[in-house]
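#struct-queue
[09:14] JT: dropping the first one here, sequence first, then the C-alpha cells:
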Amino acid sequence: MVSVSILSLWLPILVAAVLVFVASSVIHMFFKYHESDFAGLPDEGGVMDALRPFNIPPGEYVMPHAADKAQRESQEFKDKADNGPVAFLNVFPNGMPAMTQSLIQWFVY
C-alpha cells in the first residue's frame, strides 16, 4: 500500500477546486436556474417608499414577530398572522450588491 501525504496533493486539490468553481459559475450563468425564483411586489415603488422612512438596518426580519412561544400562542399574534401580510424580509445595505466578497467566501467554503 502506497502512502501519500495530503501536502503532496495540495496542487491537484486546488486545481480541482478552481475548476469546479468556474464550471459551477458558468453553468449557473448559462442555464439561469434561479432567474424566476423571486417575483416582484405589486407597486414595488410604493412599498419601497413606505418602508424607507423606517430606516431599517441591514438584517433578517419576520412579520408578524413573536419573541417567545407564549407570544406565538397569543390571540393577538394569531390575528396578525391571519390578517397578514406574513413575510420574511432580508434588508441589505443600499446600493448594488458586490459579488466579489460572496464569490471569495463561496470558493473558500
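[09:21] JT: and here's the second one, same format:
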Amino acid sequence: MENRIFFPQSGLDEWVVDGTADLQDGELTLPAEGRKYKLTEGVYVLREVSGGGDAHDLLGRVKAREHLEQLGAEIVESSMLLGEAAYDIEPGWIGSPVGSLGEREEDLLARFLAKDL
C-alpha cells in the first residue's frame, strides 16, 4: 500500500503563510524536509454525533472527499451527513509522496508534524 499522510487544512494554511510549506499546482513541498506530496482533498472522521452509530465504519479514518461524496455524503465545513448518520470531521488533504519515503524520512516527517500540530 502506498504511504500517505493527512494534512489538516488549518495546519496547511499556517505552514503556507509562515513559509514552512509551499503549495503549487496540487503539490505540497516541505523545503526543510526535501519532500513533495501530491494532494487530494480528504477528511479525517472525528466522531459520530447523531447517536445512530457508525454503520459506515468511518470513525478515526481518513477518506478522500470524492469517495465519500460518491457514497452520498454531504460535507459542509467540519460536518458530514451520510445516510442517517452525522459526523464531525477535520477537513484537509491526503498527501501521496512524490518519490519514495524511507524509514528515516518517515521519522523526520513524524517529528515535523508532531512539532507543528
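[09:30] RK: nice, looked through the second one.
[09:31] RK: The chain has one domain: 5-116.
[09:31] JT: good to know. The first strand starts at residue 5 and ends at 8.
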